[in-house]
Amino acid sequence: MLKQRVELEMHLNEPIKKIKRSRTKIHKVDNQFMDWGMDIGTFTDFVRKISELAGWELCLLTQAMYNVTNDSNIDPKEFFTEQEINSAIRSAKVKEDDNDEIKLPIVLSEVIKINYESFITKISMHYLAQMFESKLITYDYETQRSAKFRKTTDGVIAVPDVKISSVKNIAENMVNETYLEDMITLNVYSKEVEPIEYNEKSQELTINEGATISILDGFHRLQGGIRAYKQNPELNQQMILSIRSYDLDTAKRFFGQINTINPVKKERRKELLAERISDVTVANLQKKSSLGQGRIASASDISKAANQLTTFDLMSWGIDRIFKPTTRLEAIDLSEYLQTYFDYLVGSYKEEFLDNPNGYRDSYTNPLSFIIYLAIAKYFQSNDKKLSELKEYIENTFDFNDKELSSVINDARGINTKKVRNNVLDCAEKLIGGSGSVK
Question: Is 304 left (phi over 0), alpha (psi -120 to 50) or beta?
């Protein structure tokens, strides 16, 4: 080192405190470590035992924090030589070793075929870790638990909902060789190429170049395994590997039926399973309407940081109560009408829905207001009213400053209370006047 270690540790104290107060900054520092091949939670681990860190670990901690804070007091070049920095990077296996990098196509042996889109085999956790570090295994937010949103200087980003305590527990058991082999499920798919090929005679499965591999189940186990191999590269942990080749809708249903050690929020699970016919309608609105692009939350409440407008469960409840679709065909037809309807609605209130939704949370962009919008949609459909008249109708019929209307959509009991939802629907029907029943 160019200076005394104690001096560096002293300079690190204040930026560590600042980073620890911001989950966004913690995430950014951890991303630095992950770029270097280290696992989630490294920052927290390192700062807890900073005086015990090896020289190369202290160097990487300093570099990661400097990259995020740009604090000149902890510039790594002031404390470490260029050779020491490069050595730290090598110690963390930062530079990709072409011999270790895995590329497609890959061939798996001793694979048992369950059916044309489902296979099973065994695999070493080390190989799975190499696949992840080679960026072959992705985390698909559409088929996993709902994302967490972090506000950064570059905007709002989605990050995996990972429980670090579970990852640490899995890693510890693997290192101690007390972890019993478990299953990890990967989905291999593509719209451009044939994603997989299976040879019945040799029992070999080939994942073809151009295929996308996402993890359907076992992300915590995978992260735990990566963490364990960082501690002991000679570890011989075997896993059961389930390979599926599902399209998006099937993958979502599959994940929805899985129970894991970290249960999926019930709202997200309902969405994935598509248990109600009305869920089909909402899923189509998510993909095709002006309410797409993440504006319908998968969780039990909206993320204001992500400018979300309403929730999947609330929309599905409203459609079920108001439109009462009974078949998938009816649900699909309804989604086409509602897609056009919400395009008109959002286009008529661009300021409220797109430019500044957080400025209208007690009125137009309150999640409960979408029950009202669905009731209006039903009224327009039943009475063959032109959608070009929608804005004029809303402004003549609904005054969000009205005491009764404001009180029901801003009820402190919350958007997931059945009584609150029913009160909003009753209020909407009352204001519409019963012409064209909404219930």
Answer: alpha
